[in-house]
Specification:
Distance between the termini: 40 Å
Number of helices: 4
Number of strands: 7
Protein name: YdbS-like PH domain-containing protein
Keywords: Membrane, Transmembrane, Transmembrane helix
Number of domains: 2
Strand order of the largest sheet: 1-2-3-4
Pfam families: bPH_2 (PF03703)
Largest sheet: 4 strands, antiparallel
InterPro entries: YdbS-like_PH (IPR005182)
Radius of gyration: 21 Å
Order of helices and strands: EHHEEEEHEEH
CATH architecture of the largest domain: Roll
C-alpha cells in the first residue's frame, strides 16, 4: 500500500540489507527468552509450581512477535537520492520521511560497531546545521555505505560551493 505523503513517485527507493533484521533478531530474541526463563525460574523457586511455565511461554511469544516486528521495521527503511536532496523513510506504526537538501549537509559519518562489522553492515549518518536533525541510513553493506558517503559528500560540496 502506497501513501503519497511517504512514497515519492519520481525516485527509486533503495532498501537496507536484510542482514540488519538478522542482527537485530539475534540481539533481541535471546534476551526475551532468557528473561522468560529467568522469571520462570524465580517463580519456581518461590513455590509457584505450575505458574513457572507462564513466563517462559510469554518469553517465547514475545520473541516470536519481536522477530516479526523487527522484520517489518527493517523492511520499512529505505532511502532515495534525487537531484537536489536525499530522502529517508522508515517506521511501522509511526512513519517518517526526512528530506535533506544536499546543500544543508555539513558532513557524513560512516560507522559500524563490532556486531555490525561481523555481519558486514555499516550505518551512514548525515549531519546538518540543525541541532535536532538526525538522518541515519542503517544496515548498508560496506560497499554501498562507501558509495553513498562519497556521493553525498560530492553533492554536498557541489551545492555548498554555490553559496
Amino acid at each position: 500500500m502506497t501513501d503519497p505523503a511517504f512514497d515519492a513517485l519520481d525516485v527509486e527507493w533503495r532498501g537496507v540489507s536484510p542482514r540488519l533484521a538478522a542482527v537485530r533478531r539475534l540481539l533481541l530474541c535471546p534476551l526475551l527468552l532468557l528473561a522468560g526463563l529467568g522469571v520462570g525460574a524465580l517463580v519456581l523457586l518461590l513455590g509457584g509450581g505450575g505458574w513457572a511455565a507462564l513466563p517462559l511461554g510469554l518469553g517465547v511469544v514475545g520473541a516470536l512477535l519481536a522477530s516479526v516486528w523487527v522484520g517489518r521495521a527493517v523492511a520499512s527503511w529505505a532511502y532515495a537520492e534525487r537531484g537536489e536532496d536525499l530522502l529517508v523513510r522508515h517506521g511501522v506504526l509511526v512513519r517518517r520521511l526526512v528530506v535533506v537538501p544536499y546543500g544543508r549537509m555539513q558532513f557524513v559519518d560512516v560507522t559500524a560497531d563490532p556486531v555490525h562489522r561481523l555481519a558486514r553492515l555499516a550505518t551512514v549518518q548525515l549531519h546538518t546545521g540543525a541541532a535536532t536533525s538526525e538522518v541515519v541510513v542503517r544496515g548498508l553493506v560496506p560497499a554501498e555505505a562507501a558509495r553513498l558517503r562519497d556521493r553525498l559528500a560530492a553533492r554536498g560540496e557541489a551545492r555548498a560551493a554555490g553559496l
